[in-house]
Amino acid sequence: MINGIPTLEDLGEVSGKRVFVRTDFNVPLDGEADDDGDDRRITDDFRIRAALPTIEWLTERGASVVCASHLGRPKGEPNPQYSMDPVRARLAELAPGVELLENLRFDPGETGNSDEFTAQLTDGIDLYVNDAFGASHRAHASIVGPPKTVPSAMGRLLEKEVDVLLGLRNQPKRPFVAVLGGAKISDKLGVVEALLDVVDSLVIGGAMCFTFFAAQGKRIGDSLFEPDQVDTCAKILAANAGKIHLPDDLVGLDANGQFATWGAQVPDGGKGFDIGPGSAAAFTDVIMDARMVFWNGPMGMFEDDRFANGTKTVAQAMADTKAFTVVGGGDSAAALAQFRLDDEVDHVSTGGGASLELLENGDLPGLAALRGAPNA
Ligand SMILES: Nc1ncnc2c1ncn2[C@@H]1O[C@H](COP(=O)(O)OP(=O)(O)O)[C@@H](O)[C@H]1O
Ligand SMILES: O=C(OP(=O)(O)O)[C@H](O)COP(=O)(O)O
């Protein structure tokens, strides 16, 4: 038992038992599935491999394991583009004899958190394990439903993620620096205020910086920004001026589509796609001086080589610093892997939204549900 949450050891005898394991197998795919066939391929199986310690712990002790996950965001009905087939094939290579149900979000009861869907999932099930850290910020049926009636536990991955991220939040080594970027601006702005209570410095790059620039009255051209959030950013800046580091140079495409380097303003018709070399160097200094760093969200559109430099420089600083380093989020983890630096940081989290919400609140709906399990 860890903080009132049962672990695998608290399940008792698992031999001969049927165990439902909620995993987050929401992996990146390329290719298409349609009437002509399915040529989808998994581009990164990190989330599948991350669940293996739990699956193996159970199968080695004679349990029969049924895994289930969502994949993408289908709209509550079956859709071949989101079927679990490619995941099932990969799982069969990594863990023979393990069942995998079809995409949980093919039923509206999953995101609707319906009791009927939970009852369907737990029918014939003896034990429930949540190892889906990346989805544990969602109060969906398969995350919060089974522990109401079935003896439950957190899996090894969930245990590790919670241990590392709550360690950052509750025993920060200072200076503690958060680096935020990416494109899910409105999702993440909600977390910025809470993070500022916890960290000593907040470094902002990616598309997120443009909403802050707009709040400072700077020109941002046609760069991605959220008009509704400008007032929020102005308030955040006014209250935390000394803590926030924004880029002071940028690169992007000018009104003629030509590669351009600017100061912290984007001329009319231009689009900023990465932080500039001066900002990348300044951000590196902040990361090198830290004793703990949490990074979520690429510094630019790194999928395009012309705009990968900021993300690559920050990734290299994460690898080089003596600080304890944690990276969360699908795209940030993919960027690290692309630069072959994923082994150089202390922890790569399988959850982006989940890691931010855990840092913000110190808890997640999936963890609270486990604390209420019959065996807790
Ligand atoms: N300046 C920018 N303009 C447009 N897109 C950007 C910019 N900076 C980063 N991005 C995009 O943000 C995406 C990742 O954002 P996000 O999903 O928030 O990160 P994560 O998955 O790590 O949480 C990447 O696909 C990247 O191309
Ligand atoms: O990929 C996920 O989240 P992430 O992109 O925040 O890491 C999880 O599988 C949750 O998926 P969702 O954001 O569709 O609920």
UniProtKB/TrEMBL annotation:
Assigned keywords, A-Z: ATP-binding, Cytoplasm, Glycolysis, Kinase, Nucleotide-binding, Transferase
Gene that this sequence comes from: pgk
Organism per entry: Ilumatobacter fluminis
Binding site for (2R)-3-phosphoglycerate: 47, 105, 138
Keyword 4Fe-4S part of the UniProt annotation: no
Keyword Phosphoprotein: no
Pfam annotation, one family: PGK
Subcellular location: Cytoplasm
Record's catalysed reaction(s): (2R)-3-phosphoglycerate + ATP = (2R)-3-phospho-glyceroyl phosphate + ADP
Pathway where it operates: Carbohydrate degradation; glycolysis; pyruvate from D-glyceraldehyde 3-phosphate: step 2/5
Top-level enzyme category: transferase
PANTHER family: PHOSPHOGLYCERATE KINASE, PHOSPHOGLYCERATE KINASE 1, CHLOROPLASTIC-RELATED
Residues annotated for substrate binding in this entry: 24-26, 47, 70-73, 105, 138
Main location: cytoplasm
InterPro entries in the cross-refs: Phosphoglycerate_kinase, Phosphoglycerate_kinase_CS, Phosphoglycerate_kinase_N, Phosphoglycerate_kinase_sf
GO BP term (any one): glycolytic process
GO molecular function, one term: ADP binding
Family: Belongs to the phosphoglycerate kinase family.
Gene Ontology terms: cellular component: cytosol
Transmembrane segments: none
Record: residues binding ATP: 188, 272, 303, 329-332
Protein known as: Phosphoglycerate kinase
